Amino acid sequence: MSPTSMSPIAGPKPSIILDCDPGHDDAIAIVVAARHTNLLGITTVAGNAPLSLTTRNALIMTDLLGLDTPVHSGAERPLVAPPRHAGYVHGASGLDGADLPDPSRPADSDHAIDFIIDTCRSTEGVWLVPIGPMTNIALALRAAPDLAHRIAGISLMGGGTFGNRTAAAEFNLWADPEAAAMVFEYGGPLIMSGLDVTHQFQATPPRIDAVRAVPGRLAELLADLLTFFSHTYTTRHDDMGGAAVHDPIAVMALTHPDLFTRVARHVVIETRGEHTRGMTLIDQRALIERHPPNCDVLTHVDDDAAFAVITEAIAAFSR
Ligand code: BDR
Ligand code: CA
Predict the structure, then answer these.
(1) N or C: which end of the chain has fewer CB within 10 A?
(2) In angstroms, what is the span from residue 149 Cα to ligand 2's centroid?
(3) Where would I find the Inosine/uridine-preferring nucleoside hydrolase domain in this sequence (predicted)?
């Protein structure tokens, strides 16, 4: 598979299902997806917080954006691993740091996997965009193997040549390595936005100020969320000027492909290593023995231009 064969086609908005665990950066990804994609649905998974909270947070975001996009909750726990969350980054609610309203409506169902399968069978060319643990996507692919050749592809946030939850593993893959392995082996177009690219994309104080300068409550709440998120990053890292805004990158990889450089690689998920469980093993060998690529790995982002996409999307929903 060549890199160009996997690049999204410029033109009409891509139709996507956003599979998420909000999560501060997931919340920003919802804004960008609402602005720049045909957002068919939001599915939620346990990850940054327990499922009841990630679902609640997704519903709050749809309210704040005035969306009637369906929200379906999915897997309450990983396939094999015990459920473990990320309150140390996102707070106990998954979206600490802002005075958020209660959601106005319940989730449309707790059958996210059925929603994914039915939507991908009834709609041509859907992109799945998992930005949390990949449990829902793996369960959908296992229950409906035909999805692998029905969908346009999968654009995911996860992995990297270094980890954050462990020295080797990024959180989304560490949380459910068996699910991630199924996704990376599914056989269709795959775009990986890992830590190498997402750590280039930081919510620095001037960028948060730019969000806060957008008039209205949405921008104020999102600036508060980014401030909290950035505080956890700058106090936990030696070298970051703000939170890495990971998740919108997986959306913008489809909607704004020109903002990124990418390289075609073979990537597998380590599921058994004593120290490396959840690691993306990226074959970077410049050797003829290297494995054929199964994935486009994003390597660089035009970070100023990408953050401008976020600010503009927030402004668009603030009018
Ligand atoms: C990923 O983990 C979560 O904390 C973020 O929402 C992002 O999806 C980054 O490792
Ligand atoms: Ca996430």
Answers:
(1) C
(2) 26
(3) 16-307
Report yes or no on 9 lying in a domain. Answer: no
Nearest CA among 183, 86, 186, 169 for reference residue 134: 183
Q: Which of these is catalytic: 24, 72, 246, 256?
A: 246
CATH code assigned at 73: 3.90.245.10
pLDDT of residue 11: 64
Is the minimum distance from the CB of 48 to ligand 1 under 6 angstroms? Answer: yes
Residue to substitute in 21, 173, 237 for testing ligand 1 pocket (most ligand atoms within 8 angstroms of CB): 21
Q: Residue 3 has what pLDDT?
A: 35
- With respect to residue 10, please indicate whether it lies within any of the assigned structural domains: no
Query: Does residue 8 form part of some domain?
Result: no
**Does residue 92 carry a pLDDT above 70?**
yes
Number of domains in the chain: 1
Q: What is the pTM of this model?
A: 0.96
**Residue 274: both structure tokens together:** 């004593």
247 alpha carbon to ligand 2 midpoint, in Å?
A: 6
Q: How far is the CA of 20 from the centre of ligand 2 (A)?
A: 6
Atom of ligand 1 nearest to the CA of 21: 6
In a domain, 93, yes or no: yes
9 confidence band (pLDDT: 50, 70, 90): very low
Supply the range of the domain harboring residue 70. 15-317
Average pLDDT, the chain: 96
Active site residue 291: no
Q: Is the pLDDT of residue 5 over 90?
A: no
